[in-house]
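Incident log, structure service

09:12 report received: a user says their structure output differs between two submissions of the same chain.
09:20 pulled the input from the user's history:
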Amino acid sequence: MEYNYSLTTSYDGELIHTLRVSDMLEIVDAWNKCVDFGDAKEYATYNMSDPMGKMYTKIFFRDERGVQIK
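09:34 re-ran on a clean worker, output below:
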């Protein structure tokens, strides 16, 4: 099976989890669940990539910086 989409989760710069799927709805559902810093001490980074190579990033900080979405 070919995996077209991926979602990586990193806490404080350390890769924690990688999800690879072929279904767009499944990856969008997982992406929408990325809503906070999880178990990270300082920040959590979520990266989603699509088959065209486009990367979407969410960064959640524990401090006053809040959320950055790129």
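09:41 both user submissions now match this output. Likely a transient worker issue. Closing.
09:42 reviewer note: The mean pLDDT is 92. Strands lie at 5-11, 14-21, 43-49, 55-61, 67-69.
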